[in-house]
Amino acid sequence: QVQLVESGGGLVQPGDSLSLSCAASGGSFSRNTVGWFRQAPGKERTFVASLFRGGPNTQYADSVAGRFGISKDSAKNTVSLRMNKLTPEDSGIYYCATAGRAIWSSQTSPDAYDNWGQGTQVTVSS
Description:
Structural class: mainly beta
Distance between the termini: 40 Å
Order of helices and strands: EEEEEEEEEEE
Number of helices: 0
Strand content: over 45%
Oligomer: single chain
């Protein structure tokens, strides 16, 4: 199974930008749907953004639409999440995941994904 490795998390101030990267080790993203999810302490894992079946169609949670952007670099075998105008509510552990059989309506659900990375911490605080 392809191993997913997230990187790029850290501590930033409100209003800052941050880019997360998800690298596929031992394989490629191919035509899989790639999703980013986040989980705050004591809360459920929630959908952030997805790149449907290799692109170009994308989907975003309402809370991040217009501020976040998901993109794929096939040459580097990575999927990135660019996050702008960060707020404390964006804090949490960010996970990337892949789904081999997701359909458009299911890609916002964690249950549609069968391969997950270990996560990277994002903290937005002044």
